[in-house]
């Protein structure tokens, strides 16, 4: 495993830890989109089904279990925890996320590496992950107060796929890996969606001001 | 198996 891949995974893990920290310590999920979190549950559930069929490494298995358990528990907290669920910005989080699922699934049926259940589900998870942040970005834009933990959560979540892009370049150049257009293009789209957010995040960080996105 | 190359990623 190269350094970009490891950094990407750690950033991904860090983003989830930041979100859990917010939920546990502040007992709040204000500014967090349940729609995006539900999409992540679907992304991880469809991508990591192979933990039951294929073994890669201890690291791989543990990380997959961590992502599955944490994504399910975040949704549980937001929906059912008696304090946390009252802080959910239900009225602002109106993105119709179901509308993302069907096109991604149809695209996965049409464009995939191999027409098998495992490959189609894997491909679907890549397409869906690329756009899963959209409800969260819309909610952030509507939020007047973005607290630090929420801002950092989205930043780390965006940085993770950006680091994967470097990992793929490295693997292609140094390890002579095959051309893998499906994850590459999905990852590029995913990272590009954060461009605007990154710009304002870094700007506010430099000026030491509170993060606010223009409406 | 070639398919497994990309499935080792998260």
TrEMBL record, chain A:
PROSITE patterns: ER_LUMEN_RECEPTOR_1, ER_LUMEN_RECEPTOR_2. Keywords: Endoplasmic reticulum, ER-Golgi transport, Membrane, Protein transport, Receptor, Transmembrane, Transmembrane helix, Transport. One of its GO terms (biological process) is protein transport. The keyword Acetylation does not apply. GO terms for cellular component: endoplasmic reticulum membrane. The keyword Transmembrane helix applies. InterPro entries: ER_ret_rcpt. Belongs to the ERD2 family. This is ER lumen protein-retaining receptor. The lineage of its organism: Eukaryota, Viridiplantae, Streptophyta, Embryophyta, Tracheophyta.
């Amino acid at each position: 495993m190269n350094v970009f891949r490891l950094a990407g995974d750690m950033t991904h893990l860090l983003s989830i830890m930041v979100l859990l920290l917010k939920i546990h310590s502040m007992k709040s999920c204000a500014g967090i989109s349940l729609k995006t979190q539900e999409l992540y549950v679907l992304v991880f559930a469809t991508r990591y089904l192979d933990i039951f069929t294929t073994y890669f490494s201890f690291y791989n298995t543990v990380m997959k279990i961590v992502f599955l358990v944490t994504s399910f528990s975040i949704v549980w907290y937001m929906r059912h925890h008696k304090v946390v669920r009252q802080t959910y910005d239900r009225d602002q989080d109106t993105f119709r996320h179901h509308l993302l699922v069907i096109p991604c699934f149809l695209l996965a049926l049409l464009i995939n590496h191999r027409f098998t259940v495992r490959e189609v589900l894997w491909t679907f998870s890549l397409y869906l992950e690329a756009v899963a942040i959209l409800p969260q970005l819309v909610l952030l834009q509507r939020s007047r107060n973005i607290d630090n933990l929420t801002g950092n959560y989205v930043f780390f979540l965006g940085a993770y796929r950006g680091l994967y892009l470097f990992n793929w370049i490295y693997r292609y150049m140094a390890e002579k890996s095959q051309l893998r257009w499906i994850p590459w293009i999905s990852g590029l789209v995913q990272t590009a969606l954060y461009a605007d957010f990154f710009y304002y995040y870094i700007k506010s960080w430099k000026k030491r001001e509170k993060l606010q996105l223009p409406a | 198996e070639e398919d497994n190359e990309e499935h080792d990623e998260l």
